[in-house]
Amino acid sequence: WEAQKPEQPEGYHYHREPFAADVSEGKNDPIYNAHSYHTKVPHKAIMRYILHYTQPGDIVFDGFCGTGMTGVAAQMCGDREVVMSLGYQVKPDGTILQEETDEDGKKVWRPFSKLGVRRAVLNDLSPAATFIAYNFNTPVKLKDFEQKYKEAIRDLKKQTNWMWNTLHSDGKTTGKINYIVWSELYSCPECLEEFDYYSHAFKAVNEGSIEYTPEFKCPNCGSLCAKSPSKKSLAHKLDRVWQTAFDQKLQDTVKIQKRVPVLINYSIGTKRFQKFLDASDIETISRIEQLSIAENIPGDRMPEGDESRRNDDEGITHVHHFYTKRVLASLSILQKIIGSDPQLNFLTGSMLPKLTILNRYMPQHGGRALVGPMANTLYVPPVGVENNVIDQLEFQAKKIIQALTPLSGSTISTQAAQSVPMPEDSLDYIFIDPPFGANIMYSELSFIREAWLKVKTETTPEAIENKTQKKSIDDYRHLMTECFASAFKYLKPGRWMTVEFSNTKASVWNSIQNSLSDAGFIVASVAALDKTRGGLHSMLGPTAVKQDLVISAYKPNGGFEERFQKEAQTEEGV
After folding, report:
1. pTM score
2. How far is CA 365 from CA 126, 214, 475, 536, in A?
3. Most buried residue among 108, 403, 490, 520 by CB atoms closer than 10 A?
């Protein structure tokens, strides 16, 4: 890559001021929305930094690449239309101009970069992340992919349509199930009456709207009950209702909280309907329960962790417990259809989060009752949604086909950021969005996805605060210092690194600053990156950070030290 760089004009000298402007980029791009992940920076936001700090052919590194958006951004810097969509002008010779204000307050267009592909080295500790990054950064023949996924959908329909059909209220017409609402069962601690949570926590009010009431009266004895009563509440805490069943995957008897289907949303043509389950629906469920869980379904035990074991007290202990039997049966058939094809596995992987019991049903939101999983947790709601696998596959296929590109590719590896083997002083720019303290338990949240991939994160070098891994804020700072020290070694002198920071704790902010300083970087500026919609953790509390911070740091090239020796010996020099 270094040898392939375009020749610079005679006398060219690299010099950049820190990128000082605040950046705001939305999340509505097809590439951004095609595949979910715990955190993502829109590639168009990253493009602004790459264009500012680099020239065509320059080598960019992202040691915490996640879904590979830095690689996409690096290659999109050669796409005239995409660059112009950022508000820049592009001359016929490839010179990129941005609007600035001159000394007289007038708007002028000034050249600041060149149109052209940059090269990217991408790395992440998570196999789930690098699998997604690989598919976003690998050339795809879109027609071939379209043909493959349409064949897969057709085969899946043939074998599983019977699972996702239901009878209309007339008892004759067949409808297509969109989703099924499942509710946990609880019992009143006073009279032991059993009931489903959905029917009592959600009450119809004026004009058919629905209201959520976390405290309600037992339908039998009238005692005030709640799933999680507050300290000041007089409500009794509901007891879970358990069921004991033989787990085919584990070949053992398990005890798990009981859930029952309470509502079916289905379509006939373009019209939607809702109904309670009838005898034919119960018969379909019974038929599905008789099916054997195939070997291609992961049955891994959830790992020890701050987040991954939160559902043990409900009996949800293994990966397959996060899916209903109907979904597992459909996924098993789909896995046999697609085999090891990386693009089709990328497609199915993109819909997996929408098929777990983590998806919440919140009818109080009206038309947006399907809320999805709670961000960055493995929280299982008392009322959840079982989505139609066929529908989700078709829906995701339309998104993926818009997101896949014929890009020229990046180098991608799966390992600790501090261990990537590269020559010293070989990188032109670094953009990273590393983990921040105890914000997100990446390896734990990726475990379900990685169980399907059959490759899991090695957590020893994971840079987080985590009680289970016995990693304190000091351990986190030490690991981040190692990562920054490697980045410092690989970066060319006088070149820049951009670090996106997202955490609400001052201690983590201090740790990042200390790690950068200990590694040898000079922090030049801190600006804001507004991704236009804050995550759950950034919106809670009066002191929460509403925007991500962007740290601009550089590797000294020795010039400052020489000047210091010469000039700082006098008062005027200081």
Report:
1. 0.91
2. 35, 15, 42, 17
3. 490
